Amino acid sequence: MTSTITYLGDFKIESQHEKSGAKITTCAPLREGGTSEMFSPSDLFGISFGQSMLMAVAVLGKPRGIDISGATCELKKSTFPEPKRIGTIFCIVRFQQNFTAEQKEFIEETALNCPVALSMHPNVQRTVMFEYGQAFSQN
Questions:
Q1: pTM above the 0.85 mark?
Q2: Which CB contacts under 8 angstroms, 24+ apart, belong to 123-127?
């Protein structure tokens, strides 16, 4: 993946995906002098974790007949002040479908070992809960 990242001024940054031309604009949060009108760069970090979990399960689950259409990930991220960094990520991954115990094990193991999770610093505290229909499990 190649992109061009440009500082636009007023604590806003635009990133453009080279192949598609798609753009993402971020801004600083209020506490940093920004407007919080868009995602911040650290917000994108958290979002990348949620998206990576869902994408890994979708891609690796397809050959197994696992379809997660409609799945969602509710994510909350917090930062620590000293040293300033992402401190915690809390996710609830919800699936509309109910799966077998074997499929749930595959889904959870795949999600928790997605590329972003495996690249994350071990000091980032992560809590991920999985909900299937009405029941859920915590990892």
A1: yes
A2: 123/85, 123/87, 124/85, 124/86, 124/87, 124/88, 124/89, 125/87, 125/88, 125/89, 126/49, 126/88, 126/89, 126/90, 126/91, 127/88, 127/89, 127/90, 127/91
